[in-house]
Amino acid sequence: MNFIYLSAILFVIGAVGVVVRRNAIVVFMCIELMLNAANLAFVTFAHMNGNLEGQVIAFFTMVVAACEVVVGLAIIVTIYRSRRSASVDDASLLSR
Amino acid sequence: MSGSTVIFWLLAPMTVAAALGMLLVKKAVHSAILLAFVMINLAIFYIMQDAAFLGIVQIVVYTGAVMMLFLFILMLVGVDSSDSLVENIKGLRPTAIFTGLALMAVLTSLIARATTGRSVVGLEEANFEGNVQGLARLLFRDYVWAFEVISALLITAALGAMVLAHTEKSPEARLSQRVRSMARFRGASIGTAAGLPGSGVFARHNAVDVPALLPDGKPSDLSISTVLAQRGDVQETKSYALEGLPKIDEEDSK
Amino acid sequence: MNQSQNLVYLIALPLFSSALLMLLGRKADKWGHILATSVSAGAFGVGLMEFFAMLGRSEEMRPVTQKLFTWISVGNLQVDASLLLDQLSIAFVLLITGVGTLIHIYSIAYMSHDRDRRRFFAYLNFFIAAMLLLVLGDSYLNLYVGWEGVGLASYLLIGFWNQKPEYATAAKKAFVANRVGDFGLSIAIMIAFANFGNVSFHGIEEKVSGANEAALTAMGLMLLLAAAGKSAQFPLQSWLGDAMAGPTPVSALIHAATMVTAGVYLIARSHFIFDNAPDAQLAVVIIGAITLIFGALIGTAKDDIKKALAASTMSQIGYMILATGFGPAGYAFAIMHLLTHGFFKAGMFLGAGSVMHGMNDEVNMRKYGGLARVMPITAITFGLGYLAIIGVPPFAGFYSKDKIIETAFNAGGTKGILFGCAALLGAVITAFYMTRVMLMTFGGKKRWADDAHPHESPFLMWAPMAVLAIGSVSSGFLLYQGKAIVNWLAPIVDKHHHEHEEFLPATTITLMAISAVVIGVVIAISKYRGELSSEAPSEVSLWTRIARRDLLQDDANEFLFMRPGQRLTNLLVKIDRSVIDGVVRGIGSSAVGSARGLRTLQSGYVRNYALLILIGALLIMLAIWVVTL
Asked: Does B33 touch chain A (CB under 8 A)?
């Protein structure tokens, strides 16, 4: 049951990391951390409630996270190739 | 004091510390390693909670595939790449930290409210035939539609990555070898036919990033690989220039 | 009630002629005045015809009506456009068309040098039509149409020479002062409709005995306000002096004989209201008394001959209003004085016009003097009018004014003595200032400039003056012969044939009146017999200065109404600009400001957006936390 608290802490750390870090890949890694924290919560709830549906959802989450990582990193590589920089601050063309 | 409590109280602080470290370290590769550590800890937690299949999948897929993918990309982008610690958007860091702490407080309070008085049921009954069989029953019977959609998503993601990462061949690459050879021999100088000078030749150093010297003592920029220039690892070529050439003919005549 | 088919011609002929002259424009310049004058004479003919027909009928059968069309038919309000000709209105009809025709004839010669003579006649005809509609209307609403029409005609005619800004301003002043009175008439009509459900004279007369006195008093006061506006009574009298900016025939017709008497007509016509609301009647009497003294005092200090006559008009109408305030005893005498006044005042105005015509449009009496030798006909006709107005027997004014003073005293008690003495005082001052006018203009030595060549006026000008002079001489006697006017009007205003007790014997009052006249004349002769300077003296007493400034009415109006009004409009403009426009602009600028503030959120930095998402998530969590408390 304490796992849920752990999951909350990890989630928050990941969220803050998304905002604070500037390297796009590290931002991605923080997102992965958030997803993992959510998975932990699901598995804990499955354990608490006594059925496997939490695990099924965690399974799906993993699959989706994998796909997302693949596509996201491909995008980062493409941007890096054209702009020569991996900092998220440089992609600020939508500002005034 | 059961084993699971011990493992929890041993691993949980380390997990949190690793996550914090992932947030705070300068080099991106260090963040990746710390994240891998967190994921392995999580796998242990899954196994502890009777989610054996999921724990193994976590190690194999997440840590093994996804984190390795991260590391490959890091190497592509630049292993040394690091963030400066100076924040250039004003007020972002304090606001983010404050929001994070507030969120943590609210979440903790909500979880406490939701879980007090609840007893843990445990998965012995659900795992009666084994964890994999129980999962399979759910996946292929109750959630088969979601399963199929997720597979479609996987295929789409793979295709998308291929499309995004594909580079067009540069215009020179499309030309055939014969055409390229002819262009080389018809170039501006004989130097294009002979090839670029190697680095360190006729020089006092043997390193890849030290330029070769031309007959009049000046360093040749052509002798250093352009990859190094792109990576920013090239040295100042002027510092290798010779002040005066040694008089070979005079010594021989003596 | 008898029906007649002819009444509409009284109004339609002048109205049609006026429209024709306005629409044809310059093409009608050659014959416009002829048409206008003949139309006016035609209206007089129709009026005479109706009068003789009326004489031949018995008392109850005398009133005739003519319904033109149904005008308003909305719910409870049913108003027909109908005309009513009874004994009261026929007197006015004859006065308007008769004096009107004479003035038309006069104007042919007076305005002969004016390029816009045709337009002048068009306006004159329009005025005749509107005034006739006023006295022929059978309901307050129909009267109101005519009321407005004469106000408009007055404005157009006063400002006829509107090339001069002062004249245009005088026209505006007249219109605005009239408007204040018109407001009173509108309110009175509304009160009538609210209380009686009806606005026609006969309809209200039937219902008036059961009405509550407060409503009747309110209506009476509003009617008094309307009369004060139209007849230049206190406190709305300031426009009459300035109205002399118009051509002299206008002053004669409108501001002596007809329009300014519309107020008296209104009060007489509303006798059923006033007879049942004694407080309103008291107000009427007070206003009349104040105005008659007011006008007389102003008249003593004016050097402009027309303004002196205007002040005299104001005062004489004060007499008429005073008389109407005494109820059934006084209505007949008010009307009698109105008719005689029409003759002698119009005659004097035409005489003044003749003098001005001869003296090259000079109005300052200080520049006249000794004109009797050069303009004998004018002097004689003017002189007969003068004798009439001051009340020398057996001229017209003597009979009518004497009767009014008698009615005042016969009201009894302190009220009677107070107002009777006021009327007598007015008679003294009237005699004084009219003698002053006569002496300054026609008597004494000549004071005119060397380039002035005073001459007698042409026939078309002195003939109407002569006719009016005959009226000044004889009308009083004729009207009172055998109490003719009283009996004539009794079925209208005095149905119950009150017996009026006498407070003082009639001969005593007559003697007092005559002695008042003598006193006034003697004082005037002693002051103005000798040499007079041709410039107005500036070393004068305070009273003279106040009288020269129209007894400070203009200043009071300015102080009480104009300046606060200006300040109010300035304040409103300021409020409009700062508050209302400020709110509008404030909405705009706050939108812009908030947009500018919100725009900083769009920094372009992904991390800012991520932070916003995080904050959003925090807020949602907070909401859930609060909701599940």
From this structure: no
Asked if residue C475 lies in contact with residue C345, where contact means CB atoms within 8 angstroms, the answer is no
- pLDDT for the residue numbered C205: 84
Q: B106 and C614: CB-CB below 8 Å?
A: no
CA distances from B124 to B3, B117, B131, C349, C527 (A): 17, 21, 9, 127, 138
Quote the pLDDT of residue C396. Answer: 81
CB contact under 8 A, A69 and B15: no
For residue C138, give the 3-state DSSP assignment: coil
A10 pLDDT above the threshold of 90: yes
Q: Which residues contact C117 (CB under 8 A, 6 or more apart)?
A: C29, C32, C33, C107, C111
**Using CA atoms, how far apart are residues C121 and C124, in angstroms rounded to an integer?**
5
Q: What is the pLDDT of residue B116?
A: 83
Please answer whether residues C5 and C66 qualify as being in contact, where contact means their C-beta atoms are separated by less than 8 angstroms.
Answer: yes
The C-alpha torsion from C181 through C184 and C190 to C196, rounded to 10°, is: -110
Residues of A (16-35) whose Cβ lies below 8 Å from B = 16-17, 19-23, 25-26, 28-30, 32-33
The answer to whether residue C526 scores a pLDDT higher than 80 is yes
**pLDDT of the residue at C482:** 67
> How confident is the prediction for chain C on average, in pLDDT?
86
B217, B240, C450 from B200: Cα distances, Å:
13, 10, 131
User: DSSP letters of A59-79?
Assistant: HHHHHHHHHHHHHHHHHHHHH
DSSP assignment of B133-151: HHHHHIIIIISHHHHHHHH
Contact C614 A93 (CB under 8 A): no
Res. A31 pLDDT band, cuts 50 70 90: very high
Touching chains, A (3+ CB pairs < 8 A):
B, C
d(CA C202, CA C84): 10
Judged by average pLDDT, the poorest of A74-83, B79-88, C220-229, C230-239 is B79-88
* The pair of three-digit structure tokens given for residue A57, joined into one six-digit string: 């959802």
Residue contact B73–A77, C-beta within 8 A: yes
- Please tell me the distance from the alpha carbon of residue C441 to that of residue B205, in angstroms, as a whole number: 136
CA distance C589 to chain A (A): 20
pTM: 0.65
First vs last C-alpha separation in chain B: 94
8 A C-beta contact, residue B103 and residue C614 = yes
Q: What are phi and psi of A27, to 5 degrees?
A: -60, -45
Report how far residue C628's alpha carbon sits from residue C390's, in angstroms, rounded to the nearest whole number.
101
Give the least confident one: A21-30, B211-220, C46-55, C451-460: B211-220
Say if strands C77-85 and C64-74 run parallel, antiparallel, or are unpaired. Answer: antiparallel
Q: Which residue has the higher pLDDT, A94 or C503?
A: C503
Which residue in the set C606, C611, C617 is minimally distant from A88, CB to CB? C606
State yes or no: pLDDT of C31 exceeds 90.
no
**Other Cβ atoms within 10 Å of B37 Cβ, number:** 19
Q: Say if CB C310 and CB C244 are below 8 A apart.
A: yes
What is the C-alpha separation between C8 and C581, in angstroms, rounded?
A: 54
The tokens describing A84, both together, are 């020569």
Let me know if C451 is exposed, middle or buried by CB neighbors in 10 A (0-12, 13-18, 19+): exposed
Q: How far apart are CA C46 and CA C94, in angstroms?
A: 9
CA distance B160 to C602: 30
Model ipTM value: 0.90
Query: Which tens digits make up the pLDDT trace of C533-555?
Result: 777 777 777 777 787 877 787 88
Number of other CB atoms surrounding residue C57 within 10 Å = 12
